[in-house]
Amino acid sequence: MTRSSWSDARSIAHAAGAAQQSDVVDTLALSEALGHVLAAPLVSPIAIPHYASSAMDGWAVAGVGPWTLLTGGDAERARSVGLGDGVAVDVLTGGLIPAGAEAVLQLEHGVVEQSAGSARLHLAPSAPSEEPRPGRHIRPAGTESPAGSTVLDAGTRLGPVHLAVAAGAGFDRVSVMPLPRVRLVLTGDEVVTSGVPAPGFVRDSFGPSLPGVIASLGGVVTSSVRVGDDASTTADALGLTSAVGAPARQQRDLVVTTGGTGDSRADHVRALLRDAGADFLVDGVDVRPGGPALLARLPDGRLFVGLPGNPLAALLTVLTLVHPVLAGFQGLELPALRPAVLASPVDGARSGTVLRPYRSVHDADSPTPHAEPTPWHGAAMLRGLADADGVLVCPGSGTAAGGLVPSLDLPW
Length: 412
Ligand SMILES: Nc1nc2c(c(=O)[nH]1)N[C@H]1C(S)=C(S)[C@@H](COP(=O)(O)OP(=O)(O)OC[C@H]3O[C@@H](n4cnc5c(N)ncnc54)[C@H](O)[C@@H]3O)O[C@H]1N2
Ligand code: MOO
Description:
Structural class: alpha+beta
Strand content: 25-35%
Strand order of the largest sheet: 7-4-6-5-9-8
Bound molecules: ligand LQZAQKY5, molybdate ion
Number of helices: 8
């Protein structure tokens, strides 16, 4: 096994995913599109807003006051043909500004005087003297974007506000990348799924966490199976044997296993893949935790990631290998690193890279937050990651307090 550096492992995983990027797109209703990645830029056919509207409840006015306030049929006619000088009609927030209107006088600043079947609108005594300035409380059409402008870029992962932007531009459906599909195979004789485990047994960390983690990366877990430490059932679960009806393979399929990446009599993942003729793209990573992780292409073309059994090692390996593969499948960039300043030192380790969950801390002497590495960084410990703001990517030689290191945001 020749380990890849952490950064090579990420790049290899991203390139492998990108090479199998889906060449079909789905067209989905907005109500189904949350979490999908836009396959093409969304170009608005209309200006946004698409008509000049009032920002206040009040009166649209033309010329200087006092104004003749039109009501009923006269007001309707003026709204469609336009306002003459010295005329006003009432308007609601968001309402169409009639042609000829120069400003909106808000309700609080006007007084209506009724006399002999006609109405006059005056400035209220309390109104600021400059009211109504030209253009006051009018939102012109196209102030946010002109017609024909790109309101969402290709590659945007659609969050709730993006869906509102698409709706505002008049879209009912959008073209998105199909969701990457993930098959989970969770290994281990000692893993139990309910209750307090007896000594020698452990509660499963991955069944409750990985579907949500995969969803946060834009993927969907299409199947999840548990197998004991048995080579032939593991091979069946991985679809490496003809005994199991092969599910339809797609470019964007990823198989993820947990545990069994070591060399003990209970670990079968590497040997099964080797015997099946899989192409090992990453065979171990020079990182702690997560050293035994692997990435391979199965003989049927599906990509495969083997996560180590230790829970923290496994979830950090999601960041190292699974996130880059799924980003590549969806045509997205490799997740960016950003610099963080350490609040406390991170010790060196016998590996090129040390991954360490951290929390952001604000201290009175510094304008920028510092990263406090979690004390719960054993490969089986999850409470540090559960409360983390991100993960530090430290050199294996160790880093002193105040040192600058790259960091990854958590996708979940
Ligand atoms: N002789 C060596 N032993 C180990 C080495 C090594 O280099 N030489 N590496 C260690 C490292 S680092 C890791 S990480 C683990 C990798 O182990 P495996 O991927 O083979 O995983 P398992 O042996 O199946 O399990 C390891 C550990 O994780 C627990 N586990 C497994 N599944 C779950 C689950 N679903 N939920 C919670 N915990 C789980 C399992 O009980 C073990 O405690 O190997 C080291 N050993
Ligand atoms: O690298 Mo193991 O993955 O430390 O626990």
